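G., the chain you wanted modeled:
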Amino acid sequence: MSGRKRTAQIKFRVTEEERALIEQKMKLVPTRNMESYLRKMAIDGYIIQIDHSDIKAMTAEIQKIGVNVNQIARRVNATGSVYKEDIEEIKGVLAEIWRLQRLNLLKAR
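Predicted structure as tokens:
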């Protein structure tokens, strides 16, 4: 075995579920050799890391808007009246949603 090209060994442990997942992914490529597959993934594979901070911020804003709209709806249902301030607030929050959406689209370009 002294003629081996690869002499350094790396070991790691996985759960049975992780092993099953690795084996499933191996079936998607033309290899049955786990050593070759894992070496190829470790060297040439890549991890995609996506920044969801914009989406989280937008979701938080939309959630706040939803709370405001629910409060307005409760007030309308309780009093039977729609107030001009409520309509203006709804228009304002809708404008804010569109502004955030345009901002996110510009960042994506």
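The chain has a mean pLDDT of 85.

Shout if anything looks off.
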